[in-house]
Structure formats: structure tokens, C-alpha cells
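Memo to structure team: turn this sequence into C-alpha cells by end of day. - J.P.
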Amino acid sequence: MPSPEQQQELEQAPVYWTARAMQEQGSRFYCALGEALHAADAVNRRLILRTWPEACWDFYGRGQVLARAESL
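Reply from structure team:
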């Protein structure tokens, strides 16, 4: 479970890289969840992030790696 500070960081960060990591590296379920996260409004985005906090935190970290790799 992410700490309260990590959860806050996750909820305040843009979801692009988290959703992209889900779509590229996740199972079919997480691929679909990434699509939903990317398309969600703020209320539904928060619902997704709070329903699957461990997975979202993991994919958030993966997304940060993707972002750094693409910026090189």
C-alpha cells in the first residue's frame, strides 16, 4: 500500500505515463484500466487510483522510467 504521501503524489501527477505503462506493460486487464485512466475525468481518475493503489503506484513508477527513457 502506498504511503499517504505517495498516494497524494500519485493523485496529483499527470496520468499519461502511468496509463501508458499500464497499456504497454500490463496484462489485458491493466491495459484496459490504463485506457480508462487516461480517458477518465477527475472523479473517476481518483476512483481508479484509490481502488487499485498498489498497482497504480507500481505503474506510476514504471511510467516515470518510460518518461525518463523517452526524454533521452
